[in-house]
Design a protein that fits this description.
Layout (H helix, E strand, L loop, with lengths): L8 H15 L6 H26 L7 E11 L2 E9 L1 H24 L5 H23 L3 H19 L6 H32 L4 H5 L15 H25 L3
Antiparallel strand pairs: 1-2
Length: 249
């Protein structure tokens, strides 16, 4: 069986874990929450492992799997698509592998929490993994931005998990604001990209044979410089928000 065709399950399973643990948090026991929260990540890791082995076979070329038209308005067409290559396959292993270990560790670390709060925490973790997977799998900047936004949202939710603590709430708000500043730069970069090139697809922009950006004669084009700087602002904002998450205990 072609494991590449199962790639949609890798982000879908953590999303299902988020929905189940989130909406059924008042009726599920801690043990069930732990099995669901950790189990979906484990299955995603197994599928990611199969994808990794297939991608590393000799002769494999990057593939773009399109599922449906996400935006289709006039000349603007953006597909909901995943790009599978050596880099994305490697990051799938890292995200799901390390994510599974974090989930297993959390089953003990959060054991003192009440069942609804315990399930809420695991739903946040599942959503975080889902967002990171969307970030690395997206075949265009818009799908990547959805994962980007999701990671920022989950940073806010996890930092402010103990919402009755004022210090944690303040830290969550600071992380949220910094992420929004970065996201604004990223979003403006995407808008400029659409205006300048008419596409946000990685393949259309960077393909070595007929890619739009690689075919531009003036590499110091104002559009390229401006878009790059705006995307860089997005990375700076995300880095600041992530550092806030890592420094919060």
């Amino acid at each position: 069986m072609n494991s590449i065709q199962l790639i949609y399950l890798v982000p879908l399973l953590p999303l299902l874990g988020f929905l189940i643990n989130g909406f059924a948090r008042n009726i599920l026991s801690k043990s069930v929450v732990s099995v669901i929260g950790s189990g979906v990540i484990l299955i995603s890791f197994i599928i990611s492992l199969l994808v990794f082995f297939q991608v590393n076979h000799e002769g494999f070329t990057a593939q773009t799997i399109s599922y449906f038209d996400f935006i289709n308005a006039g000349k603007i067409k953006v597909s909901f698509a995943f790009q599978i290559d050596q880099l994305s396959a490697l990051f799938l292993l890292i995200i799901t592998g390390v994510g599974f270990l974090i989930h297993v560790y959390s089953t003990s670390y959060m054991r003192e929490e009440e069942s609804p709060a315990f399930a809420r925490y695991f739903s946040y973790l599942n959503l975080f993994v889902f967002s990171m997977l969307m970030l690395v799998l997206g075949a265009n900047y818009l799908i990547m931005f959805i994962g980007w936004e999701g990671v920022g949202l989950c940073s806010y939710l996890l930092i402010g998990y103990w919402f009755k603590n004022t210090d944690y709430n303040n830290a969550a708000k600071k992380a949220f604001v910094m992420n929004r500043i970065g996201d604004l730069g990223f979003l403006l970069g995407i808008f400029w990209m659409i205006n300048a090139f008419g596409t946000v697809s990685f393949h259309d922009l960077f393909n070595s044979e007929n890619g739009i950006i690689t075919s531009i004669s003036a590499i110091n084009s104002p559009a390229l410089v401006g878009i790059t700087l705006l995307l860089f602002v997005g990375a700076i904002g995300k880095s600041a928000g992530t550092s806030r998450l890592s420094n919060t205990d």
